[in-house]
């Protein structure tokens, strides 16, 4: 394994995909965030916590610019982070993944990881816009979300171990086993403790655009890593030319 | 675990594909994964508190910087 090349293509692919994710969010998710924060502001004015003054809007616009600008940088950081996990799993499982080339293999793996560590946890604990969520419960919600992701991810690793050990005509049992396992976990994990008080069309629209943007990330990281792996072949060390 | 694949590319080339993944590389990527996830998903002033002390929990620089991505990526924010 060419370690430096391996690390470089993994980190670059994650950063590129994360930047694409951040830019997608700016276009697709940001309007919902602005609308939700607008509701938060109206609630602050109504409760008397803030006053609707020019000074308020100067400060508001200042930190909203910081937050919006941070979207792309945070996307690059998160993308590099998740891309690092993707690279680890790909390097360890590449030989077992179906597909004739690296691009197909990375797309298959991205599909599996998107399903197990994003979509299934999302269905249990969907994303929420600002205005939804009590600050008092944020630690509990963070623990629940991360726990479900970890349980589902390790469940998928268990599925793979079982899949390897089963005979060809019984391999479907591994998928059934994962489905039963994650179904039980899904039912047993506590629900999000916070009530959704924001308009549901706003919440539903936000969740849909959020899911699309995260899915764009997973497709992007698969395409970039698969292409870079194919081009640089970090797993290929020795090529000997033989005279005829 | 080491996997060796020997491809005989008839008639002039032998390519040996060795796909052992160094533990060092795995460990480094795992650290990057954990740190990046914490920064974007969970920091509430913890990182800057190393240099700014308690004030960092009021300023929430990283929280504000990652605020929109935190919501959009599904992390609980506030």
Automatic annotation (TrEMBL), chain A:
UniProt cross-references to InterPro entries, sorted A to Z: CbtA_put (IPR012666)
TM segment ranges: 72-93, 105-123, 143-160, 172-189, 209-229
Superkingdom: Archaea
Keywords: Membrane, Transmembrane, Transmembrane helix
UniProt name for this protein: Putative cobalt transporter subunit protein
Species name: Marine Group I thaumarchaeote SCGC AAA799-N04
TrEMBL record, chain B:
Pfam families named among the record's database cross-references: CbtB
Membrane-spanning ranges: 21-42
Superkingdom of origin: Archaea
UniProt keyword list: Membrane, Transmembrane, Transmembrane helix
Entry keyword annotation includes Membrane: yes
The protein's name: Cobalt transporter subunit protein
Native organism: Marine Group I thaumarchaeote SCGC AAA799-N04
Lineage: Archaea, Nitrososphaerota, Marine Group I
């Amino acid at each position: 394994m060419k370690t430096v090349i391996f690390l470089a293509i993994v980190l670059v692919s994650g950063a590129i995909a994360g930047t694409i994710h951040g830019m997608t969010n700016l276009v697709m998710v940001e309007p919902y965030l602005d609308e939700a924060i607008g509701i938060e502001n109206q609630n602050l004015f109504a409760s008397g916590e803030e006053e609707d003054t020019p000074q308020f809007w100067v400060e508001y616009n200042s930190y909203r610019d910081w937050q919006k600008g941070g979207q792309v940088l945070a996307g690059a950081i998160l993308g590099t982070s998740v891309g690092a996990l993707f690279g680890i799993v790909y390097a360890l499982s590449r030989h077992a993944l179906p597909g004739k080339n690296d691009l197909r293999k990375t797309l298959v793996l991205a599909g599996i990881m998107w399903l197990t560590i994003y979509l299934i946890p999302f269905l249990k604990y969907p994303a929420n816009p600002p205005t939804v969520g009590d600050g008092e419960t944020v630690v509990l919600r963070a623990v629940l979300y991360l726990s479900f992701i970890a349980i589902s991810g390790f469940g998928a690793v268990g599925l793979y171990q079982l899949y390897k050990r089963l005979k060809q005509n019984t391999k479907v049992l591994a998928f059934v086993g994962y489905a039963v396992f994650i179904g039980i976990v899904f039912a047993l994990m506590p629900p999000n403790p916070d009530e959704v008080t924001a308009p549901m069309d706003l919440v539903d629209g936000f969740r849909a655009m959020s899911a699309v943007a995260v899915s764009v990330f997973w497709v992007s990281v698969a395409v970039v890593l698969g292409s870079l792996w194919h081009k640089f072949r970090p797993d290929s060390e020795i090529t000997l030319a033989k005279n005829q | 675990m080491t996997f060796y694949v020997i491809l005989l590319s008839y008639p002039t080339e032998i390519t040996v594909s060795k796909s052992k993944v160094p533990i060092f590389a795995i460990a480094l990527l795992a650290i990057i994964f954990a740190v990046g996830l914490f920064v974007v998903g969970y920091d509430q002033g913890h990182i800057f508190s190393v240099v700014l002390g308690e004030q960092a929990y009021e300023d929430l620089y990283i929280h504000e910087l990652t605020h929109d991505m935190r919501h959009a990526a599904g992390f609980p924010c506030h």
